[in-house]
Each structure stands twice: as structure tokens, then as C-alpha cells.
């Protein structure tokens, strides 16, 4: 015969009560169990390796970039290289020009390779193949890494109107000067990665002598691109090089590099 439950009681089991264990207690418990020491040791090792990898990555890529720079160092006196430059036949990954910036805020001295592929940009900076060669008419465009592979464009945000960039080639050199703010924005300015108009060959960009430098923004991220626009103010090049790939459909995106 069943009896009714006293008032306030229930036939349902009571709610389980748990007491949170502190991390130290859990660690001690793990160390006392079979295999616990090995698991904790493996976890600590994994965390240490992960932490070291995060901090070491820029240093590793800087080393790779330095190796590429030594490999692609340009021999300006080479007749073969001079002919390739004049005819626009420098191969992707091969050194194309030396870019130099030297002002109180930014110092850069880097060999720019032909191409902006992932492999090419491991040298630090690469020339957009769809744009004119350095010192030629049109919008010469160069992409560079900002936090890795030598980070040549790490201080691109510190460039100001009036600052100069020199491009040295086997047939002479030219100097570009950062232009004042234009189009409703500052210079340098920020765009989305798909705004390829900044490296296009249209309108005034096709008829003048321009240089456009691009990199990723913010530093360590690829969500945006920082762009610096410059105009040629001096050149020793007598006959401008040709690039059969320039003036085509253009790049599919604005390149940079973390």
C-alpha cells in the first residue's frame, strides 16, 4: 500500500550537487593517476611549442626573406639582365629592381622580384606583372610584406606626401615622390583587397608616370590594404623598358603580405 508523500517532499531525485575543483587540484589529481604525468607533460610541451612558434614565426620568415634576397641580388652590369629588362622578359621570381627609401622615418633597401605570387613575395617585395616596368610610363605597382619576410613595407603608414622612393634598374634609375592627399582620402590610404583600381592602368594612371606601393593592413592581418601613391619627379632612363603583360585585364586582387 502506497503512502502519500509528506507535504513539500518529492518522489523525484534531488538535484546533483557538484563542487568546482580548482585547476591546481585537478592538476594534482591528474599527476596521481596512472598516465597522468605523461598527459600533463605532453600538454605543457604542446603549449610551449605553440607559444614559441607564434613568437618565432616572424623571425623564421625574416630568415627566409634574407635568403631570397641574397639569391635574387641583381647584377646590374649583366648584359643578359639588361636585355631582359629592356624587353620585359624578366622571369617571375627573378630580381627586377632595387627599391630604396631613406628618410627620417622610413629606411628600406630591398630587391623587388618580378611577380606577386606567394612564392615570389617570400623575397619581401614583388612587382605586379600586369603593370609597367620601373621608370616606364603608366602605373608601376609593387607589393611588399609588412610583418614577415623582411617586412620591407612595415613602416609604409609612416610615409608622408613629399617623401621619395628610388627605383634602380640596369638601364638607369628614377625617383618618385609621394603625392598630397587626393580623391577625398589621405596618402597613404586604405582600400579593400578587391579594389584593383589602385593598381590599374586607366585614366591619368595610364598617361603619367606613377608608382603605387601596397601592403596588408592592419599589420598582421589581410583584411585591408594600405596604399601609397607616388609620382615620378626624376629619371636617368633614356629609353623606357616595355612590358608586354602591362595594360591587360590587370590583377585579380590588391596584393600585400602580412
Give the termini distance in whole angstroms: 78 Å
Q: For this entry, what is the oligomeric state of its chains?
A: single chain
CATH fold annotation of the largest domain: Sortase, Chain: A
Number of domains: 2
Could you state the CATH homologous superfamily of the largest domain? Sortase
Proportion of strand residues: 15-25%
What does this structure look like?
Helix content is 23%, strand content 24%. It has two domains: 37 residues, no CATH class; 164 residues, Sortase, Chain: A. β1 and β2 form a beta hairpin. α1 crosses α2. With 258 residues, it is of the alpha+beta class. About 9% of the residues have low confidence. It has an eight-stranded mixed β-barrel with strand order 1-2-3-4-8-9-6-5. The chain is globular and about 80 Å long. It has four helices and nine strands; from the N terminus they run αααβββββββαββ.
Amino acid at each position: 500500500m502506497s503512502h502519500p508523500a509528506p507535504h513539500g517532499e518529492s518522489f523525484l531525485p534531488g538535484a546533483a550537487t557538484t563542487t568546482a575543483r580548482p585547476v591546481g587540484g585537478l592538476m594534482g589529481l591528474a599527476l596521481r593517476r596512472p598516465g597522468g604525468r605523461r598527459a600533463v607533460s605532453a600538454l605543457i610541451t604542446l603549449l610551449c611549442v605553440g607559444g614559441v612558434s607564434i613568437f618565432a614565426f616572424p623571425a623564421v620568415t625574416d630568415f627566409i626573406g634574407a635568403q631570397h634576397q641574397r639569391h635574387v641580388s641583381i647584377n646590374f652590369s649583366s648584359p643578359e639582365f639588361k636585355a631582359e629588362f629592356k624587353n620585359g622578359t624578366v622571369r617571375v621570381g627573378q630580381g627586377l629592381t632595387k627599391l630604396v627609401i631613406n628618410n627620417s622615418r622610413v629606411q628600406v633597401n630591398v630587391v623587388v622580384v618580378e611577380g606577386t605570387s606567394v612564392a615570389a613575395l617570400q623575397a619581401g617585395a614583388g612587382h605586379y606583372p600586369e603593370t609597367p616596368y620601373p621608370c616606364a610610363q603608366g602605373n608601376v605597382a609593387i607589393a611588399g610584406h609588412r610583418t614577415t619576410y623582411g617586412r620591407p613595407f612595415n613602416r609604409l603608414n609612416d610615409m608622408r606626401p613629399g617623401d621619395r622612393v628610388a627605383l634602380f634598374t640596369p638601364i638607369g634609375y628614377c625617383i618618385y615622390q609621394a603625392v598630397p592627399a587626393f580623391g577625398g582620402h589621405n596618402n597613404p590610404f586604405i582600400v579593400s583587397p578587391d579594389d584593383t583600381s589602385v593598381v590599374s592602368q586607366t585614366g591619368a594612371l595610364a598617361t603619367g608616370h606613377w608608382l603605387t606601393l601596397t601592403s596588408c593592413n592592419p599589420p598582421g592581418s589581410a583584411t585591408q590594404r594600405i596604399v601609397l601613391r607616388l609620382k615620378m619627379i626624376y629619371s636617368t632612363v633614356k629609353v623606357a623598358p616595355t612590358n608586354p603583360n602591362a595594360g591587360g585585364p590587370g590583377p585579380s586582387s590588391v596584393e600585400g603580405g602580412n
